[in-house]
Amino acid sequence: MTAQAQNKITDAEWEVMRVVWSNKQVTSREIISVLEDKMNWKQATIKTLIGRLVDKGLLKTEPQGNKFLYTAKVSEEESVRDVTENMLAHVCSRKVGSTIAELIDQALLSHADVKLLEEALAKKKVTAVDEVKCNCTPGQCNCKHKHQQHHKKHYRVEE
Ligand SMILES: [Zn+2]
What is the CATH number of the domain that holds 20? Predict the structure, then answer.
């Protein structure tokens, strides 16, 4: 787990991080000019968010003249990866495949995106297993009893 895992980015903070990521180095005024209208936030709100991101160690700040320049201390790729890993950690390992399929189903994709996914799947085909094992704590998912059914074929466990 990275330090970032403890410093999760909130939805509001994502808005600020995206401005910083796409501009490499920005002043608070630049962040405010992008988000003021889009989010309908007050300047003070945006400054609070920036301050929180600095406290969390996600933004670096350095003075330049009478203003401060902000740079991201974590990359966009890394942060997005954290979110998807975190999301998949919330489902049973047996449901990861169908969760990803659902994501694909919901997404608007270009031909290039589809090609990228096809290539990723072709690679996965080589290392695919016959059955993904459930990693859940009993009581947190219902596939344990499917396992029982599987192992003790003669018993019918029904609830
Ligand atoms: Zn499970």
Answer: 1.10.10.10
